[in-house]
Write a structure and sequence with these properties.
The chain has 70 residues and is α+β, with helices and mostly antiparallel strands. It is built from one helix and three strands; from the N terminus they run βαββ.
């Protein structure tokens, strides 16, 4: 998956936000999720206004991944 805003327009697509106290935790969890789903890698860790810690965002699909590169 590569289009960031598809989750807004198509069934089966979602945005996942992970929050934690440190960037290592959010990044590790995001890569674990991406390894098991048809998902993008995580965004750069960032602070959310009014929230403690950091967050990353990734996008996932319930549709099978295109493994043929096509």
């Amino acid at each position: 998956m590569s289009t960031r805003h598809l989750h807004l327009t198509q069934p089966g697509l979602a945005r996942i936000t992970i929050q934690s106290a440190d960037p290592e935790t959010v990044t590790a969890l995001a890569y674990t999720i991406a390894a098991h789903l048809n998902a993008t890698g995580p965004s750069e860790p960032h602070h959310l206004p009014g929230e403690d810690g950091v967050a990353v965002t990734l996008y996932a699909s319930t549709h099978p991944a295109d493994t043929e590169g096509g």
